[in-house]
Amino acid sequence: MKMQKLGAMALLGAGLLVFAGCKSAPPLSQQDAMQMVQAKYNQAPPEPVSFVISDLGMRKGIVAKYWIETKKYPNGYWADFKMTPEGLKVIKLSSGGDTIQWHPESSSDKSFVVAASTIPTVLHKAKDISDLQDMGDGLKTATYAESDVLDPLPSGLKDIIQDPSNKISTKRTATFNLVDGAWKLQSIQ
Asked: Which long-range CB contacts under 8 A does 92-100 form with residues at least 24 apart?
């Protein structure tokens, strides 16, 4: 009987050792996840901001003295605008050159835009991270909004970029994986 008790205690002790050796994954908070994503953005080189210039953006660009009208067409709604030296410092037209050819379909066409990008470069910022989703196998995901940090840009350029025609944030998904007992950022899509 003593041997059976001793054997049972040995098995129980071995079981406790097994359970004590199994550690659960450490928690991953939204704040920790956001910090990992932002650290990744902070390590990346700054990039130009791609945007479109709408009718409202054209008017804002005139006020900011980024371009001036050089030609008005007989139909009354077409015009050509030459970029000023100040405009050439901050805006690159996707079509190249230094002239905006404003040629909408009609005088009421509010969908006509001109594609451009900034010459000054900016970093990205992560914000509004969602609850983390456990995907199993040591993986978690979270969605968040990626936006451009526009603070370093001149106010006239920020006004054009923040026009409702431009999408100023993008929804992204970050994937985190458990590596050697610690959470790491695996990818951003």
From this structure: 92/48, 92/116, 92/117, 92/118, 92/119, 99/70, 100/53, 100/58, 100/67
Query: Which of 160, 173, 43, 180 is closest to 113 using CA atoms?
Result: 160
When mean pLDDT is compared across 2-6, 17-21, 81-85, the lowest value belongs to: 17-21
Are 143 and 129 in contact by the 8 Å Cβ rule? The answer is yes
The residue extents of the domains of the chain are 26-188
Contact between residue 176 and residue 33 where contact means Cβ atoms under 8 Å apart: yes
Residue 61, CB half-sphere, CA atoms under 13 Å: how many? Answer: 30
Half-sphere exposure of 160 (CA within 13 A, CB side): 31
41-53 mean pLDDT = 96
DSSP 71: E
State the pTM of this model: 0.77
Q: Any idea which residue has 């944030």 for tokens? A: 169
Q: Which two three-digit tokens encode residue 97?
A: 């050159």
Given the structure tokens 């009987």, which residue do they identify?
1
Predicted confidence (pLDDT) per residue in 145-169, tens digit = 999 999 999 999 999 999 988 988 9
